[in-house]
Structure formats: structure tokens, C-alpha cells
Write a structure and sequence with these properties.
- A hairpin with a 6-residue loop joins strand 5 and strand 6.
- This protein folds into 2 domains: 55 residues, no CATH class; 115 residues, no CATH class.
- Helices cover 36% and strands 13% of the residues.
- It is elongated, with a radius of gyration of 18 Å.
- By secondary structure, it is an alpha+beta fold.
Length: 213
């Protein structure tokens, strides 16, 4: 069994930037995380360190003594305190502070694309997005100004949910115009959206997958 991170390593992992996974620590501490496969050193200057997928899983799992929580219908918050709204959250704090958080998270994600995609491409989703499909799609929508749904679905707004397809999310939005707007936003963000009709409810929805080329 793999040894759990030390208390110091755990603090460094928990303090990583919420979206990019950028780490801060001494060279010795960061090298130890790299050796354990929880971080990697970016080959391009300034050679920052970032969480690997395994490191992200450690952060999201929480302390080992914590009891597992039931799987939520909406994506959980990142341990850094920020979470893109996937729709259906119980409370939604709006205003300038939230707008700044969303803008900062989106810019951080673009930077992560630049640093981890081949040729520094920022118009294609990166590995983090492919491993966090619901959060990534929701961040693209919220950063573009789309309104997430509240607890009462009939009031409108988008909802991003998982699907049986491993590389696709479903985006629900009762307003047809807003749904097409979501599709255009995702397309500009590097996703491939397509519109479908639920055969039972006749509801129109999107299936969206991160574009690869």
C-alpha cells in the first residue's frame, strides 16, 4: 500500500492553487512530491511545480481519517474554496467578489492550458479538464456569464451533469435560446457540443466533450 503523504506534504497539496494545481514549497519538499508521483516539474521556465492527477486525487479525497461523504449530484468544491457552479447549488453568492473569483479561475485555467498543452495551446482543454469534465464545463459557462440553475429547475439556468459516456457531460437549460448560447460558449472554449432530445421527456440538452485537435 502506498504511504499517505506526510503532514507537511499534505499541507502543500491542500494549499495548491484550486484550478491549476500550482504548488508552493521548498525545492526539497517539491522534489519529494515529484518522487512520489504527486507532482511534476514543468519543463519550461519558470519551472513551476504542479499536482499530477494522483496529487489532485489526494487533495480531493481529504484527510485519510475523514469519513467518506455521499456522492453529491453537483460537483464538490475544490479544497482551495472555489468551485464553479454546476447548477442546483443550495446557495449562490453573487456580486463583484464572485465575479473576480470566476475570472481568476478562468485565467488560471488558460494558464494551465498554456503550460501543459503541446505548443502551449490555450484553445484546447488540458488534462485537468479531461479529468474534471463537469467542473471544467461549468467554469467555461460561468466565466462567460451564463446563469446556473438554482434548486428549483423551473426557474431556468444551466445544469452540468455527468453522463454514461466517459468523455462527455450533459448541459441542461430549459430556455432554447440560452441552450444555444451555452453551446456557442463551450465551442469557443474548446469543447465539441451537440444538441439532442431526451426521448422520454422531449427536453433538448447538450452533450459536450473536450476537443482534442
Amino acid at each position: 500500500m502506498t504511504r499517505p503523504p506526510t503532514a507537511v506534504q499534505r499541507r502543500i497539496i491542500d494549499a495548491a492553487e484550486p484550478v491549476t494545481g500550482r504548488l508552493t514549497g521548498t525545492e526539497t519538499q517539491l522534489a519529494a512530491l515529484v518522487k512520489r508521483g504527486l507532482a511534476f516539474r514543468h519543463p519550461r521556465p519558470p519551472h513551476d511545480h504542479f499536482l499530477t492527477p494522483a496529487g489532485h486525487r489526494v487533495r480531493e479525497a481529504g484527510p485519510p481519517e475523514a469519513a467518506p461523504a455521499p456522492a453529491p449530484t453537483a460537483a464538490p468544491a475544490e479544497s482551495g474554496g472555489f468551485a464553479a457552479r454546476v447548477g442546483g447549488e443550495e446557495s449562490a453568492r453573487d456580486g463583484p467578489a464572485r465575479a473576480r473569483e470566476v475570472h481568476s479561475a478562468w485565467q488560471g485555467l488558460l494558464e494551465l492550458r498554456r503550460m501543459t498543452n503541446p505548443d502551449g495551446a490555450t484553445d484546447l482543454p488540458c488534462g485537468w479538464e479531461r479529468g474534471h469534465l463537469v467542473r471544467a464545463a461549468a467554469l467555461a459557462l460561468e466565466a462567460a456569464g451564463h446563469r446556473p440553475a438554482g434548486l428549483e429547475a423551473e426557474r431556468g439556468g444551466y445544469r452540468v451533469r455527468t453522463t454514461p459516456q466517459p468523455e462527455a457531460v450533459a448541459v441542461h437549460e430549459p430556455d432554447p435560446v440560452a441552450l444555444r448560447g451555452c453551446a456557442e460558449t463551450l465551442r469557443r472554449a474548446g469543447w465539441q457540443p451537440s444538441e439532442h432530445t431526451d426521448p422520454r421527456t422531449r427536453e433538448r440538452y447538450l452533450l459536450a466533450s473536450p476537443r482534442k485537435v
